[in-house]
Design a protein that fits this description.
Length: 105
């Protein structure tokens, strides 16, 4: 076990009590700083495009389910109207005989 204590951080301040600005990168460091910023921007744009592509894939997967459910609903309404017409009731009259029941759980 060592008795060394960690060194406290060094605060680079002016005599007036303001922090000194870090030195501006020059040469190759400046190029890497600018290139890194551009690379992060490209990564964010690419991530957004990936999310948009995933959204399109999920919409493409849900579209057949939506169309199937709409077809089942349309056939169900058509069948009920057909039965009502056979019974002599006209479902197109303002006091429609077709009723919708919504239940909550």
């Amino acid at each position: 076990m060592t008795n060394e204590r960690p060194r406290p951080p060094v605060l680079d301040m002016t005599p007036e009590g303001e922090f000194r600005a870090p030195p501006r990168p020059t040469g190759f460091n400046a190029f890497l700083a600018r290139f890194g910023g551009i690379a992060i921007l490209v990564a964010v744009v690419a991530g957004g495009l990936v999310l948009a592509a995933l959204a399109l894939v999920f919409i493409g997967l849900l579209l057949p389910v939506l169309l199937g459910a709409a077809a089942v609903g349309a056939v169900s309404l058509w069948w009920r109207r057909r039965r009502l017409r056979k019974m002599g009731l006209d479902p197109s009259v303002s006091g429609s005989v077709i009723r919708f029941v919504v239940t909550r759980r």
